[in-house]
From TrEMBL:
Keyword Signal: yes
Gene Ontology CC annotations of this record: periplasmic space
Taxonomic source organism: Metabacillus litoralis
PANTHER family hit by this protein: ALIPHATIC SULFONATES-BINDING PROTEIN-RELATED, TAURINE-BINDING PERIPLASMIC PROTEIN
Name of this chain's protein: ABC transporter substrate-binding protein
Localization per record: Periplasm
Signal peptide: 1-20
Gene3D superfamilies to which the protein is assigned, alphabetical: Periplasmic binding protein-like II (3.40.190.10)
Keyword list, A-Z: Signal
Domain of life per record: Bacteria
């Protein structure tokens, strides 16, 4: 009888502590994203395909709707990690923060907006924007800075060659265009594709293709958090890299199906269209490493727009240690 009890109890004695140990290893990460967009598909893939769980992480995602609010959440410890444009880390550093915000993993490597025309244009030329009314994005934000940078690349002065409207809130730009404001508008997906499907507008160019590679959205944390939670940052980066590889290997249809629960009000076919468009123009980073050329391009774009407070050395606000480690492995 005693031997029988021992045979039953012994496996439980071994298994239960191991199970408890595994549960204790799960670390909670509070992640704040600047907006909720198909543009961030690899992040949602990491969640849907269990890559964070594989690394022992429980990621709590909150959408903070705007760069200022996202950075406030990060700086006040409302978030451990923020997904936002790298320009925000430069703004914070320039204000004399004692705890710098460090970019440690890149998610997107191009601008995510498209130029939409009210009228259908078969052979679009950038000089067709001259003397038009252009509904741009918020002043000082990355979309607007990229927009102005691209216009200047095509010898268009946004201050004198067209009527630039940029006093409309981000959330209201699509409705403003739909109601008749502007000949052209700079829009994110899926709005651009929705407008094209409805006949409200027509996509004629990609700002992401025109502006080149730039650390458009990256994962960043306070320097103090990274020093105290290096292993967490490494695991988080590893999960993102797994998702980036998965996105590269899978079809747009498979990616759309994976992230569809994040966009319940968006048709699966439309999600697939948007994913395909971003894949084709190389918007999704293939690895989490933010390189020097991308950092320099970011600051050149900010400088051209008159929004660069001061030029910051790459090593000051970029840490690629975790990204390089997971890629090497």
């Amino acid at each position: 009888m005693k031997k029988w009890l021992l045979l039953v109890i012994l496996p439980l004695i071994i298994v239960l502590p191991l199970s408890a140990c595994n549960q204790q290893k799960t670390e909670k990460i509070k992640l704040a994203e600047v907006t909720h967009s198909i543009f961030y598909a690899p992040l949602y893939v990491a969640m849907a395909e269990g890559f964070f769980e594989e690394e022992g992480l429980d990621v709590e995602l909150t959408t903070t709707w705007g760069g200022d609010k996202t950075m406030t959440a990060l700086l006040s410890d409302g978030a451990d990690i923020a997904l936002v444009g790298s320009e925000t880390s430069i703004y914070v550093h320039a204000q004399g923060s004692s705890d710098s915000v460090i970019n440690f993993a890149q998610l997107t490597q191009t601008d995510g907006t498209f130029l939409v025309s009210r009228e259908k244009i078969d052979n679009f030329k950038w000089d067709q924007l001259k003397d038009s009314t252009f509904l741009g994005q918020r002043k000082g934000g990355m979309p607007q800075m990229v927009g102005e940078f691209v216009l200047k690349q095509h010898n268009i002065d946004p201050k004198t060659d067209l009527e630039l409207i940029q006093n409309i809130d981000f959330a209201n730009i699509p409705s403003a265009f739909a109601s008749g404001t502007g000949d052209f508008v700079q829009l994110f997906e899926p709005t651009a594709s929705i407008f094209e499907k409805e006949g409200t507008g027509h996509i004629v160019a990609s700002f992401g293709t025109e502006s080149g590679k730039v650390p458009y959205t990256t994962f960043m944390s306070k320097e103090s958090f990274l020093k105290e939670n290096e292993n967490s940052a490494r695991k988080f980066t590893a999960a993102i890299y797994k998702a980036q590889q998965w996105v590269q290997e899978k079809s747009s249809a498979e990616i759309a199906k994976s992230i569809a629960p994040q966009f319940e009000d968006t048709e699966l076919e439309l999600i697939e269209t948007v994913v395909e468009r971003y894949k084709e123009q190389g918007s999704f980073s293939t690895d989490p490493i933010l390189d020097v050329d991308e950092w320099d391009n970011l600051q050149n774009i900010m400088d051209e727009a008159g929004e660069l407070p001061t030029r910051i050395d790459y090593d000051t606000l970029v840490n690629t240690i975790y990204a390089e480690e997971v890629v090497e492995k």
